Amino acid sequence: xxFKRTPQVFNCSMNEVTFGTxxxxxxxxxxNVYPLYxxxxxxxxxxxxxxxxxxxxxxxxxxxxxxxxxxxxxIGAIAKRASEMPGADFVVLTLEGxxxxxxxxxxxxxxxxxxxxxxxxxxxxxxxxCKNIEKDTELFSKVSEVCAGKNILIVSARQxxxxxxxxxxxxxxxxxxxxxxxxxxxxxxxxxxxxxxxxIAPENCVQNVGSAAAGYGFEYVASTLDRVVGAxxxxxxxxxxxxxxxxxxxxxxxxxxxxxxxxDVPEWGNREERGIEMEVSTAxxxxxxxxxxxFMRHPEAVKTISNLVNALM
Amino acid sequence: xxxxxxxxxxxxxxxxxxKKAMEEMNPEPILKRAKEQIACGATYLDVNIGPAEKNGExxxxxxxxxxxxxxxxxxxxxxxxxxxxxxxxxxVYNRTNGKPIVNSADAADRLNRIDVAAAxxxxxIALCAQQGIPSNNxxxxxxxxxxxxxxMELGMDPSDLWFDPLFLVIKGNQDKQMDVxxxxxxxxxxxxxxxxxxxxxxxxxxxxxxxxxxxxxxxxAMYNGLTSAIVNPCDKRLMETIKTADIIKNEMMYADSxxxx
Lengths: 313, 261
Description:
CATH superfamily of chain A: Dihydropteroate synthase-like
Strand content of chain A: 5-15%
Largest interface: A-B, 15 and 11 residues
Strand content of chain B: 5-15%
Structural class of chain B: alpha/beta
CATH topology of chain A: TIM Barrel
CATH topology of the domain at 1-98 in chain B: TIM Barrel
Largest sheet of chain A: 8 strands, parallel
CATH class of chain A: Alpha Beta
Distance between the termini of chain B: 19 Å
Number of helices of chain B: 9
CATH architecture of chain A: Alpha-Beta Barrel
Order of helices and strands of chain B: EHHEHEHEHEHEHEHEH
Helix content of chain B: 40-55%
Strand order of the largest sheet of chain B: 7-6-5-4-3-2-1-8
Shape of chain B: globular
Oligomer: heterodimer
Number of domains of chain A: 1
């Protein structure tokens, strides 16, 4: 008897979330088939790629990246260049300089930078904080205020600060938010429940369920992604149907494969190529797991992943 | 497998309030009970209009349209001995959130309810009984097979027959309870869906005992593979038991707030 293939199309789907405004606004999520399972049904929205910059410009520790941003003399110019990177769908500004244990830049200074970036680009903006809960809470409120009307994505709200971020970023200033948990499926769901119970509509929230560089505990990320997507689609779990965003660049460019110099480990070959491979492998693995958007740094890695997405979706 | 399906039983003409509302076609008491049950987590709502021999068709149409239009097209279980009324109800039924359920066929006089379900792409509750209560599980299985064959002949998907093992009142039938649970296991092992009037088990018991009797019965039945039940969703203990059993069976992802979902 001939093999009869039954497409695995679910009668529920991931939520759709749109950030940014105008022609270049990005919509992620909405799929009702497993990640990349285009043979089961069309994938509603392609995976989106965000290019990461920081309040200091770009990550100068990444080899080859300075050349890409050559000639940019302001944060606005850097943001614009990032937005023009082939394959880029949006820009991610990481306000790491706000960290009280680091440069401790003021909230106002960081907000001004965010405003300059938002004004310089015509694609959507996502803003990451400095990982210090108290500072981020203040920072996200102010950034949401100065970027009112831009429909930016605030990354991320955690268990400790989701209430303030939901109230300021989404309810007061109409931005989008991301809920962050660290490779813990039950906490991921719980945070989504709590945010929903505050009255945040599904179209206003995405989730970041954790990230790691390939080879660095990535199996936990992979199984978390699998279980989130599995419960969202097979069990129609509305509390896990938020589209998934995953920061990749920051994880990929700090592991030894990306940082060890060629002088120290000549047998590993060219450092820039290694780093690009780490970033590409990590991003591709996240997309296979179900990430709807990835944040990346190196132009070559962005181009490669963009080609992959265009070929497979 | 899937999450347990609860069919809310509180729109039933045995209740004087509902009986009166149906006689007068007064929407308020019916909608109030519909919304209460939905708020408590009912998946389906049973709409029992009684025998409704005179105006069954009109009444069922009215009830289906009323409840679905006011309650986001909640899926319904159409419950009456008046076959024409069930057909009329299905004719105006909105399937957005699930097929209609015909309540119910048996292996005797009501076997033709399966024809109605098959002709209308509906689910049919299939009571594993003929006249009265089956005396043992061999009888239950015989009746199950009769209805299964009937459904298959008519081209129904077996998953659209929800076999009812007939829950028995515990008080007076203690010796029969494990039989019913064993039969649920047999249905489950064969891959069939099942349902039943759970509240039967606590009939004639004091009100304060009913939630614990219903809850423990549903937990034991869910362990054996029961996929649905006709319940009072406003019974908090029962609904919490069902949610927790779903968590233990890995049909729903755990989160600290799972009881609130």
